Amino acid sequence: MQRMHRIVAVLGVAALAAAGCAGGEGSDGEGSVIRIAGLMPLTGPTADTYGASMVASIEAAFDDVNAEGGVEVAGERHPIEFRVFDDQCKPEASQSAAQSALDEDYEIFIGPICSGAASAVQPTMARSEAFWAISVAVDGPTQLPNVFRTMPRIGAYTDATVGWLAEHPEFQRIAIITDQNHTGLVAATDGLVEGIEGLGREIVANQQYQSGDTDFRAPVTEVIAADADLYLQRAYPAEAALLLQQTRELGGRMPVMWNAGLTNDNVESLVPDLSLMDGVYQAAPLFSLDTFLADGDPLAEEVAESVGDRAGTYTAQGHDLATIVLAALSRSEDTTPEAVQAAMTDLQASELEGRTLNDYRPFDDGRLFREREVGLQAAVASWEQGTGWVAVPAGPSS
Amino acid sequence: MDVLLQQITNALVLGGAYVLVALGLFLIFSVLDIPNFAHGEMFAAGAYIQFLFSVQIGLPFVVGLILAITITAGLGVVLERLVFRRLQGVGLFPVLIASLALGIVLQQVIALIWGTSPVTVPPPVEGVTALGPVLISNYRLLVVAVVLVAAAGTAWLVYRSAFGKQLRALAQNRPLAELSGVRVARVGTLTFAIGSALAGLAGGLLAAAGPMNPYMGFHPMLVAFVVLVVMGAGGRLSAAVTGGLTVAIVETLTAGYVSNALRLAVVFVALVAFLVWRPEGAIRQASAERARL
């Protein structure tokens, strides 16, 4: 009898412990906390440019939901706890940050948000049973069934550039310089060259450089000597600005196209003389709020207000990413990664109407994702003095 | 031909930056035997001090530059007294590790204060000068002029002044210099201050040459070490100038005529090949006695 009491007591304690582990469900429709891990740079060279704005916009979106009691999953409201693991946008640090989060039993991930980091974490993603929503351009991770991408893949940069070039026959001699540490851009270079040559244009220089380089005068001199009439500078923000300055310094007056997704603030802080920005374009997904605000988008104004001075390079991307994850959670059967994955797969683009800044076009079946990729395009923006980046309307051929 | 001339001018502009960083590193290494891997961060500190005073506080560029030189010199004194002096005689390895660690600490402090986003300092001089077919920005021209003046000033200090005599004595034979009445500790501190001031001058000047970040010191420091290794133990100050410019020419011509992606790789392949051929460096010592400077 005494033994039976002991067994009952142990089972009782175990049951209580299990209930505790489940998150302490409330009695009035309040569910357990949904723990979401972010893999983003909090330190390192890209922390301020990319990490801070991404973290701020995701936190703002989750704060709004938490203020209403949390996200509703199968009739119960679940508060969201978002914790960022610093991946420094570096391969080794990303692997270690991802593993730390997995060791702490996180099952829903947002990030990585840098191509090199995402490629490095891909094997960890493959081994895990977690759900991952990434915001990078590099090909590879979304081949896994548990990884979804909410921004255009790297080919979209190429499509936007080639589409725009098709409408501009005045650019015949094209020069390219690419950051060879940007795995996504490097992988897309052959496709870009093929696309440009397919339009009958000539590639007069196809250069590479290392992240952190500060002197580009030698390649710029080569491009000017080759009489290029468009220079594609595929670089991160600081290097893009420096490339532009040195191009103009050495007498290069040709239009320049970037892929870096620089914001108006980036340009104002990195390019001391804004007259250098005449004839500068960007072909990139619309990461920041700038073009939306220039367009008078009311949602962009709302997001700008909630993020405040933490707005930056990835604010629009971060907002859209968080919104998509929340939409998937709210149609999910429960909070397990398998259920979220299933909900993400079936998510309809119409469910996001008016909630995202970017225009997520539905696939033929109305879904947002096909093969875990969205149907979002990159866009070309031009620099307008006094306004900043303004989206260039896409023509029929783009 | 015009393109070649432009590329050589580009190399002189790049080489100017290397020379300024290499001069300070060379002085500290020659006199004190300290391979100061934190020297690149002193350069970065100079750039951020310039940013603080000329952009954030709004003082004139020249005042910012003077403060960058003075404050980095002071920082050098503090590091020498608190760290490097205490490591004398314990061997090269602990000094090397300590300087690497100090470099990381300085980098993190800069990142903590100013963040990691690139920032810029507007150049005090704008416009571009055409020298025949060659174009060079007026500010870069000014930088090259300052580099020449700084190199000449440092050479005068080392080879013509009374302090320079003590400095050379210390570089050649520390115990003998001490016995001859040279105040070794004082000369050591001043040398560190001058070397750091040169890094501060380089940082303060080049802050206006493009966006800067807390990690900006690594590349010029690496090149400065290449210059030291190539020079060898018998090298004089002029060899640091020639070495800095030579590395820049090799780098630029590789970038212009071979591949920009290979610019540093070619420099390092050349370095290894050179050391295999001449392990003692370009300039041999005249005797068994150390004869640096």
Protein described:
- The complex is a heterodimer of chains A (398) and B (293).
- With 398 residues, chain A is an alpha/beta fold.
- Chain A has 13 helices and 16 strands.
- In chain A, the strands form 4 sheets. Chain A has a 7-stranded mixed beta sheet with strand order 9-8-10-11-12-15-16, sandwiched between helices. A 5-stranded parallel beta sheet of chain A has the order 4-1-5-6-7.
- In chain A, helix 5 runs parallel beside helix 6 (183-198).
- Chain B is an all-alpha fold.
- Chain B starts with a helix and ends in a 16-residue tail after the last helix.
- Chain B has a domain at 2-123 and 134-215.
- The longest helix of chain B is centred in the N-terminal third of the chain and has 31 residues, at 2-32.
- The model of chain B is unreliable at 287-291 (pLDDT under 50).
- Chain B has a two-stranded antiparallel sheet.
- Chain A binds chain B through residues 43-49, 177, 180, 207-210, 212-219, 221-222, 225, 237-238, 241-242, 245-246, 249-251, 269-273, and chain B through 2-3, 6-7, 10, 13-14, 111, 115-120, 122-123, 126, 128, 135, 137, 140, 209-211, 213-216, 218-219, 251-253, 255-256, 259-261, 263-264.
Structure characteristics:
heterodimer, A: 398 residues, alpha/beta, 7-stranded mixed beta sheet, 5-stranded parallel beta sheet, 13 helices, 16 strands, globular, B: 293 residues, mainly alpha, two-stranded antiparallel sheet, disordered C terminus
